[in-house]
Amino acid sequence: MSGRTRTRACPERTCVGCRKRSAKADLLRVVVIEGACVPDLRGTLPGRGAYVHPSLACLDLAIRRRAFARAFRRKGRAGTLTADAVRRRVQQAQP
Prior knowledge:
Layout: E1 12-14, E2 21-23, E3 28-33, E4 36-40, E5 49-52, H1 56-64, H2 67-71, H3 84-93
Antiparallel strand pairs: 1-2, 3-4, 3-5
């Protein structure tokens, strides 16, 4: 025996809202398309992605801290991003 385990490692990402690490499957990937934050449900949209927990608390915290602009490396006036589509997606996921 080589001492290796056969279980696959689960990729982890950090939520830009609460800054806690979680499994990639538990987070919602967000990308920027034409100046707006868009939820990437399948994780296949091109571009730089930021991850957030699918909860309004984490989303509001990320917006208040301007975490999306920082994660997407936007500066100045270009750093103001709209997250309306992400907010709608999170509200739909809430029970």
